[in-house]
Amino acid sequence: METNIKLVKYGNGLFLTARKVSISKTDLKAEQLYTICTILKNRGIAATPFIDNNGTPFLFTEFRDTLTNVIIELESQENKGTQFSIKLSSLQENITLTLLVPWQRKIIEELYQKSAQITILQITDLKVINKSPNVFYETTPIPNDEEIENDIVAYQRYYLFTEYFEGKGLGFGVDIGTSYFTRHSVEKYFATGQQMRFFFLKERQSPEYKGTLLYKGPNGYSRCYFDRYDNKSTLASTDSFTYKGKRYENSFDYFQKIYPSFPVKSTDKVAFVSFKGMGTLPVPAKCLFLTVSTENLTEDVNQQDKYTAQQKKNLIDAFWKKVGHTFSKNYQPLSNNYYIPGQAESGVFDMPPILYGGGGRLDSPKYKNGYIYKKYFLNKYYKLKENGCFYVPPMLDREVHFVFPSNVDSAIQAQLSDDLIKDSSLLTRKALEATNHSYDKGEHLNIIYELKNNYDKGTVVFVFDNNDPSAYYNISQELNGWKIIRLTKQELIRKYNKFKAHPKGKGHWETYVSLNAFRIVTELGCIPYIFQEKLSYGAQLIIDVSEKYNYFGLGLLIYAEGMSQPLFDYVIKPNPDSRNDLINSHLLEKYLTELLAKYIAEINKYKVKMLVLRDGIENKSEYDVFVKVVEKLKKEKEKGLNGLNNDFDFVFIEYHKKSLKSIRLFQDENAKIENPLEGTWMLINKLAAILMNTGAGTLTQGTSNPVLIKSNYKDIELIPILKDIFLTSQLNFGSPRVAQKLSYLAKRIDDLLRERRAQEIIKIK
């Protein structure tokens, strides 16, 4: 098994001779220190900030990169548009830094990283977007896929990242991705009468926010946010302004004096946009392009990573060949070969046996290979259809409402509702009933109010027009408390037409129906199947926050040895005054206490240990809250009240489902690069590891994308934690025939937070 990582020469014995650089002004903010380093990087010098024990800021550079009375101009944070000067001077003493000392390792890593950024931009034609210095973009688009709309283009991007491997050395890796932008500029959309198309694409980003734009300006690429376009303002007609102590008649005057080679004309139209930390500014509209995220492409476009493992490996090889030495001459080169972990640092977990209703069972694969695993996942699906759900609530809500736009043919409506009810009844072994409703174009709110006023909260399959983005949010907001399965009219009609006319249409339709039937029975409280394997941690809790941090979620799974079935519970609550990923400590304590207290009997009875997964970057204050809650509940027990046993224990883990440190694993099978098998894991160091829950058994295209875990507070064995996450990731109730990257709780909380976020957006509108 091979990684996409190359170690710097000399491995763990790597050292770097550095020199401190004094800064004439000692009360600079951290952001200003990094700005200085960016300015130096643009001049070809790698530098990183450091604050000594006395609180005095310095810079570190490689000792041969000397600075003698170098003057840097910085913008005042208090008075925007004004500047002040600082002086940088290298000190005489050299300092030898090694990887064995953590703070020195961080300095080495940052200097090597900045050296790589400098070299790559110097010797290639790749571009970066301002404030994302480790993401490099090709300047020409990928040949257009016929499935992508003709006004959207894809650009290949490269993520460059570093990682320290325990006892092995400093590694550099690169991963391949795709970014989408509009082919046309903002100016062209309006000049050619396509402004409705522009607003449609902008709206798909999110109705709440301004559209995110790529600005191809005189200083390179940067991100900004659309405010308005009046179709008449030009560079020459904008207001006069003062910047950095100088007066400019208009924006064209500014470009002429500061960037005379930038190709703009006085008559060029402007759009008004905002940059982070700045107000609204006029910029040339011909230089602005709307960003399009993969989830907001139309459903005809395959939204997944399309590169096979072999293709991705070839692209990574080509990147390193293009870059060459990677660092400046003062730094050690990378090794020629990719890092291969040893047997003690990597492995593949066994797939677990699966249990279904009526005593049905699927045994583990006898051999570890992609072909056998494909059969295992396919049988996982068919066994569910054959045996029904592992658990069905005794009091099951048997009515399912179906809501269709009235312009959907009645035959399509009947086919979907009849087939979905048939499949759902088969899975639950209960006779479910369908109640069909329809609404005219633009009248979806009327049918929503009809449901609310005439029926108890229940289950609804709501088909809506994907060309009306507000419908999605209205459904979420107005049917709060209902179990909702959303389908788009466009996808439904496409699936039905293939069903009637395409040779493989019948199979595609059956798959479409089955997947939505699985969604229905899960919403009804059924447990489709469960793994027959003991968890090291009988309780698993996940903590997550929504996009823009307005809500936080808690998900709890208890499935200890001796329990006949697992227990699941979820809490979604507002996160007021949130400006970052941090959760309000008071509210976190309150709802954690309530959630754990609810299940104290089960936790004590089965003597479970708890695995706590904080999705994203964990803050110590949240760990402290959890410690406080546990101690409080243990004291309740000592008082003879409802509390936790004194021997209750837990581990607190960072769980990253998204990370720019995209470590990839590749398997060489018969001289062909393949994805690793599901359940492949690798230790990075004592505190961090990655896990591939998807792999060769189910990926027909794309490459395995890992989850990353980190333990910040305890030196614990990571392999049992990885295995527990792997096992709970097998509860892929929405699509049993493929592997799921996330654990069940992580996926469920993610979905619930997205739904609550959607409700919030429509309120803001």
Would you mind describing this structure in some detail?
- The chain is an alpha+beta fold.
- Among the domains are: 12-122; 399-523, Rossmann fold; 530-764, Ribonuclease H-like superfamily/Ribonuclease H (Nucleotidyltransferase, domain 5, 2-Layer Sandwich), CATH 3.30.420.10.
- It contains 17 helices and 36 strands.
- A hairpin with a 2-residue loop joins β8 (127-129) and β9 (132-137).
- The radius of gyration is 28 Å and the shape is globular.
- The two termini are 50 Å apart.
- Mean pLDDT is 89; it is low at 299-304.
Chain-wise SSE layout:
Elements: E1 2-3, E2 5-7, E3 15-23, H1 30-42, E4 47-51, E5 57-62, E6 70-75, E7 83-98, H2 102-123, E8 127-129, E9 132-137, E10 152-165, E11 169-182, H3 186-191, H4 195-205, E12 212-217, E13 220-228, E14 241-243, E15 246-248, H5 251-258, E16 270-274, E17 280-284, E18 288-292, H6 309-323, E19 346-348, E20 354-355, E21 361-362, H7 370-387, E22 399-405, H8 410-428, E23 433-439, H9 444-454, E24 459-464, H10 469-478, E25 483-488, H11 489-501, H12 505-523, E26 530-531, E27 539-545, E28 551-558, E29 567-574, H13 585-598, H14 600-605, E30 610-615, H15 620-638, E31 650-656, E32 665-669, E33 672-674, E34 680-683, E35 688-692, E36 707-711, H16 718-728, H17 744-764
Parallel strand pairs: 22-23, 22-24, 24-25, 27-30, 30-31
Antiparallel strand pairs: 1-32, 2-11, 3-5, 3-7, 4-5, 6-7, 8-9, 9-10, 10-11, 11-18, 12-13, 12-18, 13-16, 14-15, 16-17, 19-34, 20-21, 20-26, 27-28, 28-29, 31-36, 32-33, 34-35, 35-36
Helix pairs in contact: 8-12, 9-10, 10-17, 11-12, 13-15
